[in-house]
Design goal:
Blueprint (H helix, E strand, L loop, with lengths): L3 H56 L19 E7 L9 H15 L4 E7 L1 H8 L5 E5 L8 H16 L5 E9 L5 E9 L18 H76 L1
Parallel strand pairs: 1-2, 1-4, 2-3
Antiparallel strand pairs: 4-5
Helix pairs in contact: 1-5, 4-5
């Protein structure tokens, strides 16, 4: 049976851990509030951007020959860029593990394609660095506080690769925020841009030709798609970490209670043994 000193030491260690996990839960909850507001605010903007592109395509008379719009050209996917959005830090449950496994499945599902990974977050970089997957670029330290400038730089790189025909498609895999308890693991193609069919029933009047506006807005759409993915990811990360730390705090509390009960039993047993020894010694002397 462990000594009382060892049990007391374990109780103290568990209680200290509980204080840490509780503090991390509170920090994640505060960060989640701000990150969630930014992610939710980006959704209507991204949706409206998609609608505007659809309206412009309809106003331009459809896109029969996208030769002047290279971001719409669909090619056989022989070379693929996969943008993997993870976190820089751990302690977020299965947040990163599930996404990285999905990335592996995506690569396995495209055995004939030459896939390069563009990693966002330290976890993605470290994961693929240990494997034989080519990494075209890594972005560490930008996901904690997503900035539009960072998303714009990544988008410019992807657009350049696509326009030079150095890649045939660009996909992004990300955990999208759904609720505090759940997130949606999403794989989305961002290049070539897929415009929804149809358009608004309103006949808008454009100062510039619709085709020129469409050409100008397509790069912005790619930027918004990457920026929104980063916002969604950081929100889902804080939610996952808050949930994980809440579970860890409760588990630590339960363990502390069990250890305390074990300590009392051990102490009671030690006292009983000492009393028996005292009584036995007194009886032997008499």
């Amino acid at each position: 049976m462990p000594s009382l000193i060892n049990i007391r030491r374990r109780i103290r260690s568990v209680n200290n851990t509980q204080q840490i996990t509780k503090a991390m839960k509170m920090v994640s909850a505060a960060k989640l509030h701000h990150a969630r507001d930014r992610a939710l605010a980006s959704r209507p903007y991204a949706g409206m951007m998609t609608q505007v592109l659809s309206d412009l395509a309809a106003a331009a008379g459809g896109i029969e020959d996208p030769g002047d719009l290279p971001l719409l050209q669909v090619r056989e996917e022989k070379r693929i860029q996969l943008i993997v959005v993870t976190s820089d830090r751990g302690l977020a449950g299965a947040f990163n593990a599930n996404l990285l496994r999905a990335s592996e499945r995506f690569i396995e599902d495209h055995p004939k394609a030459d896939i390069h990974v563009e990693s966002i977050g330290r976890k993605a970089r470290d994961y693929f660095a240990r494997r034989s997957v080519p990494i075209s670029g890594e972005h560490v330290g930008i996901i904690e506080k997503p900035r539009y400038e960072d998303a714009k730089a990544i988008a410019a790189k992807m657009i350049g690769l696509y326009c030079r025909q150095e890649t045939d498609a660009v996909y992004i895999i990300v955990n999208e925020f759904k609720s505090v308890m759940n997130s949606n693991l999403t794989i989305r193609r961002i290049l070539p841009v897929a415009l929804p069919e149809g358009g608004s029933q309103i006949d808008f009047i454009y100062e510039e030709p619709a085709g020129e506006l469409l050409k100008a807005l397509l790069p912005r759409y790619v930027e918004i798609s990457i920026y929104r993915a980063m916002l969604e990811s950081v929100s889902a990360e804080h939610a996952a970490r808050m949930t994980a730390m809440d579970a860890a705090t409760r588990n630590a509390g339960e363990m502390s209670e069990r250890l305390t009960l074990h300590f009392h039993h051990a102490r009671q047993s030690a006292i009983t043994t000492e009393l028996i020894e005292i009584v036995s010694g007194a009886a032997a002397l008499s």
